[in-house]
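Q: I'm a student working through a structural biology exercise. My instructor gave each of us a protein and asked us to get a predicted structure, then write a short paragraph describing it. Mine is D-xylose 1-dehydrogenase (NADP(+), D-xylono-1,5-lactone-forming). I'm not confident about reading structure output yet, so if you can add a plain explanation after the tokens, that would really help. Here is the sequence I was given:
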Amino acid sequence: MTEPPSIRWGIITTGLISSWFVEDLVLARENPKVKHIVQAIGSSALEKGQRFAAKHCPQSTPTIYASYEEVYNDPAVDVVYIGTPHSFHKKNCLDAIRAGKPILCEKAFTLNAAEAREVFAAAAEKNVYVHEAMWLRHRPLVHELRRLLHEEKVVGDIFRTVVDFALDVDIPALPPTSRYRDPALGAGSLLDLGVYSLTWAILTLDPGSPGKSELPHVLATQTHRHGVEVTTAVLLRYLSSGRQGIVSSTTMMPGDPVHIARIQGSKGYVDVEGPAASMPLSFTVYEKGAVGEGKKYEFPRIGRGYIYEADNTALDVLAGRKQNEYMPWSETLRVMEIMDEIRRQGGTRYPVDV
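A: Happy to help. First, here is the predicted structure for D-xylose 1-dehydrogenase (NADP(+), D-xylono-1,5-lactone-forming). I'll explain a few features afterward.
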């Protein structure tokens, strides 16, 4: 068999989401599209980086750096993964772009649309690949669901999607420097959880391809406690079709451990199942008026599911592309603009907002 192409990753920060991403990179897989190599790890201290490497990629020996800049400037690194909190994404991306390194940056991409535009302008000037890591958009489950909804029209004319993402976070017990408490770090449910709810609504209500999609009308409300937003509720309305999305997020209560979203159409509905809105495992199609079980579509679970976005990013970089087809820059900007409007209506402001 032909050996798959290889790509060498530089990992920025050693937090939880970086550990999940790296664990998926090093998973043994049958017939992989790409061979992923953890080439370098950047941390605030060498000891932290060494512990991270020993725990999460024990079969390799990545170079450990006590700064991010050294990762960006390492000629052996082909692409950089940025897993820092939202508020650091703009600086991290701009630093990597100056070094000419392709980027996969976690969502939410930045704190607001203005920061995203600044990053993309710099990337365009330097001709550097940048991709927001909204991993939902790469999952085979999502691709099949969109095909059935928008091409096969298995539930007829879609008119509504209802989706929620909830976690129970004891915010008062956290230190003031926590990303869940500090507005300067993008604290609140919207950027952390609501971006998933919003993405499910966009994917199921809008048949357009990414970058050629409608900007829905937004009605939003937010509740604040302990100085941060803790609950967001949004009504999206697509003016061209009348389709509506009921989108919510909260850090006040655990979410439904089984049900993620319901997509309703003129001929039936679809339930998306999984332990959280970020972890879909199956969906079931129900015909309107039918009695009994619906048709369930289940998908194999490979690690946590980050490998799909990692493969697609690697193939983009190896092919010399500068944007990803599932999450082009225009789509990142559309989502950021919607979240800016939600925050404007809900009364959530970050120090970087002008």
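A: Here are two points you could use in your paragraph. Residues 324 and 350 are 29 Å apart (CA to CA). The domain at 6-134+306-325 is CATH 3.40.50.720 (Rossmann fold). It's a good idea to check both against the output above yourself.
Q: Great, thank you!
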